[in-house]
Write a structure and sequence with these properties.
Blueprint (H helix, E strand, L loop, with lengths): L6 E2 L1 H14 L4 H14 L1 E2 L15 H10 L5 E2 L3 H6 L1 E2 L2 E4 L1 H9 L8
Length: about 110
């Protein structure tokens, strides 16, 4: 059995709030409950400073800086622009499905 630690940072929580309420139209109480759970269960990370790099979406810079600062083994996202990078500072960038397939020992791209 594998053990995993969830790394969180304020930029990730801000982005998650935005996506849950805007894109998925989750009610505010449910969004707050989910954010509270992540805050309680996750390991808070902060980056001393954002790297001098450019991303298509500038709001991704502090998020990726936190992943690097926290020595993340993998960065999970649904953001297509980040997924296209494949990795950043040797941190692999995977979709939730890709992570599940990796953890389950399935071949990449395998479908039901």
């Amino acid at each position: 059995m594998s053990e995993h630690e969830l790394l969180i940072c304020e930029p990730v929580l801000r982005e998650l709030r935005r996506v849950l309420s805007g894109k998925f139209h989750l009610p505010e109480p449910l969004t707050k409950e989910f954010i509270d759970l992540l805050t309680t269960e996750g390991q808070a990370v902060s980056a001393p400073e954002a790297p001098a790099i450019e991303f298509q979406d500038a709001s991704d810079i502090p998020i990726m800086a936190c992943a690097v600062a926290g020595n993340a083994n993998v960065f999970i996202t649904g953001d297509k622009a980040l997924l296209e990078l494949g990795s950043f500072e040797s941190v692999p960038i995977l979709s939730p499905r890709q992570l599940w397939e990796k953890l389950a020992g399935l071949k990449e791209g395998r479908t039901k």
